[in-house]
Request: fold
Amino acid sequence: MPIPRYAVIGHPVAHSLSPFIHATFSRQAGIPLEYVAIDAAPDAFDAVLAEHAAHGGAGANVTLPHKRRAAAICGNLSDRARRAGVVNTLIRTATGWDGDNTDGVGLVRDLTDRHGQDLRSRKVLLIGAGGAAHGVAPALLDAGIADLFIVNRSGDRTDALADALGEPMRVHPRYFRDLGTIGSFDLIINATSIGHSGEDMPLPGSLIAPRCDVVDLGYGEAAIAFLSWARASGADHTIDGLGMLVEQAAESFKCWHGVRPDADAVYAALRARESALAVPG
Ligand code: NDP
Reply:
């Protein structure tokens, strides 16, 4: 029987850690599989996915910029994918693809189980309204946060995300330009891709409440500037997106194979690799 094939499809995708993560899960669980990274330019997603299916693709992770398109091509969406409006996990069916979204559960599990955070009753600022923000916002609300303030560079996308969440008592869209007067927060989450661009996102230190925790969904180089700003502004804990990455992958693995892999072991391996790379020489 041919080894089932899985992929992460994105643009860019060459530096994705997902092939390493899923290869490790596969060894842990004793489930043979092939998992590759496939680059698909913005207008090439459908063709690339069709080719993946033709070559025995049984599932795929979908990343920037294809998560919305992925949701549109699905026959069925899980509840959490429907609420998010975006899909990061595709499951092959007899007739096409079903879609799920594991980003939200991945973030919440990383924050609560790995970092010991209690999300209940927290006042949260979410910066960004792209695919990742759509994925994590419903899960934060489900985790019992008190209020979710959303700001995004493009105001229309802020409003679209707030409207889609459908909880006007708890969800508050705001303008980026008002960040200086918006108050302070217990938890701030950067869900923008600015860390990949080298551009600056000047933010006022007044956003940081006492004992505020700050999360960047990015990791590695991409998270350095934002988390440095947070530490310099007095944040209590700063957390990058590496744990979320591993947790969302573990949840995707479970969707495909019915088995929850040991995410902690893979997280530790990635942190060790990161430290080794940071040692000069
Ligand atoms: P999208 O392209 O869907 O969204 C990008 C977001 O960043 C938009 O809100 C966009 O605003 C904003 N943005 C981009 N450039 C700037 C800028 N110069 N100033 C202010 N805002 C800007 O990307 P994703 O939502 O998929 O990814 C966002 C981040 O989350 C990335 O760093 C990605 O690596 C990370 N991520 C991490 C995951 C993990 O498992 N750790 C999983 C998924 C994502 P606008 O709408 O105005 O364009």
Observations:
- DSSP finds ten helices and twelve strands in the chain.
- The chain has a mean pLDDT of 96.
